[in-house]
Amino acid sequence: PIWVSYYFSRRLLMNLLLVTGLETIRPDQPTMSTNEKHSTTLSCTYDGSPFSLLWYRQKPGSRPEFLLRARSRSAYGSSPPARFQSTTSRTSTELSITNATLTDSALYYCALRVVVDKHKGHVDLLISSAVLSDSVLYYCARTTVL
C-alpha cells in the first residue's frame, strides 16, 4: 500500500489509500472533508473479484486501526463505531460517517484482500501515481486457514 500524509485542521480531512495487487482498488476522491456534526461518504472503486474489502483508519502517531470488512453486507471490527457504516456493490465500496466529530480526523484506507494461487508462488504489487514525497510502507502477510 501507499501511505499518504496525514492532514489535520478544524475541518475533518480524510484521505483514501490506493492499494494495488492482483486486483485493483482506487479512491474516487483522494481527499474528503466535512464539518462537525455533518455526514460524509468515502468511496473506492475496485476491479476484479476480491475475497473481501477492508476499511482502516490511522490517527496521527498511531498504527492503522481496522474498522470493518465489507462485501455484499457489512461486517465490523471488534468495537464498531455506530456512526460508521459500509455499503458495497460489484464495483465499489463506501464508508459513511454520520455526525462527524474532530476525533474522526484521520487517514482512511480502503483495501482489498485477495486469495493468492499457492502454485503461483508470488504476488505482484503495482504502484501507480506515486510521487517522491509519498511515504511508503508495504505489508505482505500469509494467513493459514484451517
UniProtKB/TrEMBL annotation:
PROSITE patterns: IG_LIKE. One of its GO terms (cellular component) is T cell receptor complex. SUPFAM superfamilies: Immunoglobulin. Residues 1-24 form the signal peptide. SMART domains: IG, IGv. Residues 27-110 form the Ig-like domain. It holds the Pfam family V-set. GO terms for biological process: adaptive immune response. PANTHER family: T CELL RECEPTOR ALPHA VARIABLE 16, T-CELL RECEPTOR ALPHA CHAIN V REGION. This is Ig-like domain-containing protein. It comes from Electrophorus electricus.
